[in-house]
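Lab notebook, bench 4. Still working through the backlog of constructs that have no structural model yet. Next entry is a single chain of 70 residues. Request: give me the structure tokens for it.
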Amino acid sequence: MTTTPKGPASYFPSIEKKYGRPITEWKDLIRSSPLTKHMELVTWLKTEHGLGHGHANALVAHTLAENAGN
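Model written out:
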């Protein structure tokens, strides 16, 4: 039985399909950015990489939570 992702991860299949990059690549970009604040990273993904707000927010939230060990 497969469990459906909850929270930010529920956006991942559509992010990969729409933008053509695997989630690991997006997470690596976020982690390599000199920016550290949530909304700075969201704005950066939107302006520099063309992501929509919801997709950028989901990627940043999930990546920062992982980095914090949550």
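Notes after review: The chain is about 65% helix and 0% strand. The chain has a mean pLDDT of 92. Flag for follow-up if needed.
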